[in-house]
Write a structure and sequence with these properties.
Elements: H1 3-10, E1 15-22, E2 25-33, E3 40-48, H2 57-68, E4 74-80, H3 84-93, E5 97-102, H4 113-116, E6 121-127
């Protein structure tokens, strides 16, 4: 992850960073942006240390985040179209739904052109009960 992207995420209003420790070893973490007014919250990053993927670490991280924010009405996140593991993880493991596909003909109006660079990516939502 580019340090610039991490810094930008951490500087957002409502941003909270977590690291996942298992047996004293950092195996991953997450950055979320919490809006206490709307309870429409955003997962900016969820990462698992290389070599520990596919062992349930990411799902454990996410489950703990959901427990920390039980008032959340909607979670939202994005991932590039080519990140097949992420798409599988968000939809099949965490229960998100792909709700929008951004591309050069359908750009996200909240992201400046220079950031998107013409890339294709999905927006996911998870509506909480």
């Amino acid at each position: 992850m580019p340090e610039k992207d991490i810094d930008e995420s951490l500087s957002k209003k409502g941003s909270v960073a977590y690291k996942a420790l298992i047996d004293g070893k950092m195996l991953g973490g997450a950055i979320v942006v919490i809006d206490n007014t709307t309870q429409h919250n955003h997962l900016d990053f969820l990462y698992v240390r290389y070599g520990t993927q596919s062992k349930g670490v990411g799902q454990k991280i996410w489950n703990e985040i959901e427990k920390l924010y039980p008032e959340t009405r909607v979670w939202e996140t994005y991932t590039p179209y080519f990140e097949k593991r992420n798409i599988h993880f968000y939809i099949n493991c965490l229960g998100f739904h792909a709700v929008e596909f951004f591309n050069p003909r359908h750009k996200d109006p909240t992201i400046p052109d220079e950031m998107v660079g013409g890339d294709y990516f999905f927006r996911f939502e998870k509506i909480m009960k």
